[in-house]
Each structure stands twice: as C-alpha cells, then as structure tokens.
Amino acid sequence: MARPRNADAAQTRLRILECAVRCIGDQGIAGVSVRAIGKAAGVSLATVHHYFGSKAELHEQVLEFSFQRFGGLQSELVAALAEPGSVESKIERAARIGFRFGLAHSETSRMLLRAQVFDRDDPALSEVAHARLRESQRGFLDLASMGIGALVGRPPRELRVPLQGLMTLLTRMAVTSTEELRILAGADVPPEKVQFEMERYVVQVALATLLEPPKRTS
Fold it and tell me: What is the pLDDT confidence band of residue 1, given thresholds at 50, 70 and 90?
C-alpha cells in the first residue's frame, strides 16, 4: 500500500496517530508493530516511517497527541471551577465533565491507562516516553492539587493521592465495556440508566474525597 501521491499530509498523519492510539491501547507498545499500525490506518509501513521515523518516535508522538487532546479537558475543568456556585456544585460539574470526556475519548483513555500502569516500565518505551509520562502525571497533580486545594480550603499535598485515585476511577470507567458497566450497575438498572448511575457514583466519590473532611470531636 503506497502512500497516495495526492494524499493530504495532515489527514494521513492524523489517521496514523488515531490508529496508533487504538492499537497501542489494545496491545501495548511492545505488542504492536509499526506495520500493524500502518495496516490499520490503510497506509504502508514506509508511509508510517515517512511521517514518524522509528517506532519509538511514533510512540512519543502518540503520547504527545494524547496529552494535547486531554489538554482540552483541563481547559474545561478550569472553566467549570471558575463558574458561579457553591464549592459542592463546582466539584460536581468538574466530575461530570471528566466522566463524559473520558467516555467520549475512550480509546485515548485506554492507551494512557496502559501507558501509565502497564507499559511505563516496559523496555520498549524510550527514555523520552518515560520522562513524558512522569512529567505529565507530576504536572497534573501539581496543578490540580493547587487549584482544588484553593477551592476547597485544603493543603495541596492532602489532595494528590485523592486526585490520582479519582483520575484512575474516571479512566477505568471510560475504558469499561457497556456490558461490564451493566454488571456493575446491577441487573435491575435499565440499560439507558447505566451511564447515569456510573456518573452519579463518580460525583459522589469526588465530593467525598476532595471536600474538607469533617473534624472529629472527642
């Protein structure tokens, strides 16, 4: 499959990136070949190398592409937290936005989850990819803990673990199949209500973990 002479370069590159996100998310960086990614994108191996060079360089670009996509989520969350309303309503809005964004970008969520949890110590990852994953996680926790901390009146250091746990939950929900979601929600929950129940749970977790816990009295 040769690259069409008049192919739109930007569209071809985007298609390869999107297929790479899906393939790496399904099989991991070590389990998928550049040839398989090219086949999924409908282009030749040579075309993939033309746009991205080596497999390591392709994976680095896939990570950057995914982080940029989730940069849109960060902007939405900042806007939601700046809207008028109570602290509780702001946290609820942010949790709902995060949940829906993850579902809308489930393939990217799956790839990043695999990269952060399963592939980050894989020797197939380049040093650049390792560093970018660490930088992304640290950057998210720094910004989110400071922003949420100022909103709810808690020291940022107290929120790093709860925020990471919440993001893990959101990502896990995003990559869960519809059938599994139905099992989690319960047999008595109508199919059209499953997403609603999962979203409500995410909101409950966000409120319970991010708001200032009540002080104990002796």
Answer: very low
Is a pLDDT exceeding 50 seen at residue 140?
Answer: yes
User: Above 80 in pLDDT, residue 48?
Assistant: yes
Q: Are residues 148 and 135 in contact, defined by beta-carbon separation less than 8 angstroms?
A: no
Q: What integer pLDDT is reported at residue 215 of this predicted model?
A: 59
> Can you tell me the distance from the alpha carbon of 89 to that of 93, in angstroms, rounded to the nearest whole number?
6
Judge whether 24 and 35 are in contact, CB under 8 Å: no
> Is 192 exposed, middle or buried, given 0-12, 13-18 or 19+ CB atoms closer than 10 A?
exposed
Are 172 and 113 in contact by the 8 Å Cβ rule? The answer is yes
Distance CA 39, CA 59 (A): 16
Supply φ then ψ for residue 28, to 5 degrees: 85, 160
Sign of CA dihedral 18, 55, 119, 143: negative
Full-model pTM: 0.80
Cβ atoms 203, 166 nearer than 8 A: no
CA-wise closest residue to 207 among 88, 100, 112: 88
